[in-house]
Amino acid sequence: MSDTFDPRLTDLAQEFREALRLGVYMFRRLDPEGDLTAAQLSLLSMISDGGLRVGDIAKNLGIKVPSATEQIIKLERVGLVTRQPDPDDSRAVQVAITQAGTAAVEYANQRRNAMVAELLQGLSKQEIEQLAAALPVISKINSSFQK
Amino acid sequence: MSDTFDPRLTDLAQEFREALRLGVYMFRRLDPEGDLTAAQLSLLSMISDGGLRVGDIAKNLGIKVPSATEQIIKLERVGLVTRQPDPDDSRAVQVAITQAGTAAVEYANQRRNAMVAELLQGLSKQEIEQLAAALPVISKINSSFQK
DNA sequence: CGCTCATATTTAGGTAGCCTAATAGTTAGG
DNA sequence: CCTAACTATTAGGCTACCTAAATATGAGCG
Fold first, then answer.
1. Could you give the CA distance from residue A15 to residue B25 in angstroms, rounded to a whole number?
2. B55 and B118 housed in the same domain
3. Which residues does the UniProt record annotate as the domain HTH marR-type (chains A, B) (predicted)?
């Protein structure tokens, strides 16, 4: 409701936005060639604990349904997911990960984790703790952003 | 050189990557309609303290020179930056922000900061401190990633 | 039952923001 | 000077989003 904030909060907001920008850049660089793209990996990770409907996938990824459909169809073509009509509601489609999909996720995560772990090695013990402490906060901010 | 890391570092890497993903999502949502795009704002902010050459802008943004040129030309068309040959090196082009550009940056930052500050209001004092402490760490990680 | 309205997905077409490769102009070193 | 290195632009392509419209199913109600 209020349009004004504690100035320190506004300063922090500015710094946080700058960190987000750097994060976007880093996230992009983490895409190795000839592997899953970031978008594909995110989608596959999302359904690795059980199939979901297209709409749920889109909502969880924070994208629109047609964008999710597009990714899903591509993943289906290369055999990483299956699409089946939801038995309870034939309007809906259940998207499930295949064995090949699971393997691809594991491989991609390992590769990317190794890249990031290498970067984290350059940090002091204290910096690592500071980073670790902030990750749940970022997650919380995101949740409140989802509305 | 080594391909294996402290497993805790790998776990942290996984969590950090997940936070980056959320950050990408948030960053995208912060783009208000009818305003500067995130890419435009980043570029303009970069030159708001003084003109830079196209190559420097690209390097600082972590993008390739042709991508920077493209953005710069668009910004020039709407009067937010000027392009002038570098007096010391006529191969190079100095890109400078205009008054309209400065105003646009200010407006865009205020809007986005207000959006983020609103989110940050939902955090506890401790969470705010944890977030603030981690931002320089993220910046450091990014620097080491630049190579 | 049959209408109508809501819901779930797909299709069609468009955009932003990256990329690589090729081109043109400028500088600098042998 | 002439060749190699550098700076920027042009051309063409890709990914991952988007909105609007089409299709199909489900659900409520008179």
1. 17
2. yes
3. 6-140
* pLDDT tens digits, A50-107: 999 999 999 999 999 999 999 999 999 999 999 999 999 999 999 999 999 999 999 9
Residues on chain B touching A6 (C-beta within 8 angstroms): 117
Count how many pairs of residues, chain A against chain B, have C-beta atoms within 8 Å: 187
Residue nearest to nucleotide C21 (CA to C1'): B66
Residues A25 and A43 in one domain: no
Question: What is the Cα–Cα distance from B124 to A146, expressed in whole angstroms?
Answer: 19
B94 pairs with which residues across the strands?
A: B53, B84
Q: Find the domain containing B74 and state its range.
A: 36-145
Residue B67 has pLDDT above 60, yes or no: yes
Assess whether pLDDT exceeds 60 at residue B4. Answer: yes
Is A24 in the same domain as A53?
no
| Strand C reaches within 7 A of the A55 CB | yes
Cβ A123–B140 below 8 Å, yes or no?
A: yes
- Return the half-sphere exposure (C-beta side, CA atoms, 13 A cut-off) of residue B44: 28
Question: Is pLDDT at A1 greater than 70 in this prediction?
Answer: no
CB-based contact A16 B120, cutoff 8 Å: yes
The whole-number Å distance from A90's CA to C1's C1' is: 22
Q: Do A123 and B137 touch (CB under 8 A)?
A: yes
The count of structural domains within chain B is 2
Q: Which range has the worst mean pLDDT, A27-31, B43-47, B117-121?
A: A27-31
Q: Within this chain, do residues A3 and A48 fall inside the same structural domain, yes or no?
A: no
- If residue A72 lies in a helix (H) or strand (E), which one and from where to where? helix A65-77
The distance (Å) linking the CA of B88 with the C1' of D2 is 23
